[in-house]
Design a protein that fits this description.
This protein is of the alpha/beta class. It has a single domain (70-337), classed as Carbon-nitrogen hydrolase (Nitrilase/N-carbamoyl-D-aminoacid amidohydrolase, 4-Layer Sandwich). It has 7 helices and 20 strands. A hairpin with a 2-residue loop joins strand 12 (211-214) and strand 13 (217-221). Strands 1, 3, 4, 5, 6, 7, 8, 9 and 20 form a 9-stranded mixed beta sheet that branches.
Length: 343
Amino acid sequence: MMGRRGSTEPRSGITSSIRAVSVRGEPPEESQTAPILSGARIFSIEAPRHVSKTAVSKTAPVASPRKPSVKVSLVQMNSVNDKPANIAAATALIERAVKDERPDWIALPEVFDFIGGSRADKIAAAEVLGEGPAYRAMRDLAARHQIVLHAGSLLEKVEGQDRLYNTTVVFGRQGQEIARYRKIHMFDITAPDGASYRESASFKPGESVVTYEVDGLVFGCAICYDLRFPALFEALVAKGAQVIVLPAAFTLQTGKDHWEVLCRARAIETQTYFLAPGQTGPHQTATDTRHSYGHSLIVDPWGHVIGRASDGPGIVSARIEPERIAKVRQQIPVVSHKVALPA
């Protein structure tokens, strides 16, 4: 159904054997359990389909049809303070993913359309959704290639204000908008290197918890700093989320220590596939150069990393297996075990 708006652990009880295949014909090393993308290399990961060795008698019940998997591709970018260049880079990477990976669904990172510059530069680069060049370009790509496109996030103008929304827009296979999510949690912190971030000075927080449906799977929306707030992810699961998407521009300083552990924790807690496409590399602001961590991740519901990017722009892909979600939730039914605690 199309959308509506809206460290392997061998003792874990569930193992995730991954077969990595390089689309450029470079065989992965035998010891690898997940691929690493370097620069703009592209890897595809597919979990093998297990076939029971038990003989089936003529009187055995017919098994229910296997739910189809959904192939996903994450685009990792190094966006800059040049909007036309960023749209061109995103377009090229999406076109490449379609050609080499043939995914059903593609996601971009946070603020793929513009990052860096001054506050005034950001406001000038923002657009009214439905009218601006970033929105139109992503809409047209989704329709042309008949893919679902989770367009990371882009800078959205707030009517009558000099602040912006940091907004995810999702397009269906005919180019129709099927979801819109505005980042809720504002990144107002001082990093370990002393760099100060005050997202709330330029951005207005959103208020809605957003999900959408693709091919019978419910996807939940979050953006970057939202990662640190488990209540949002509990709310997404309460709305039926089986896959959670978190476009990000995680700082290098925090990313190297917190990125993977938080993504895996959210996947384990929610028992969802967790898809996190990131920005990578340097971005020039009005006063200094800042760096994003990259290392885009695809994590399965058991917390195994089944797709990982390294440094530099590129693409990482994997398959979402609905049976995997159901199996994990059946084995450890955390939702039914949840206890409401007193305030």
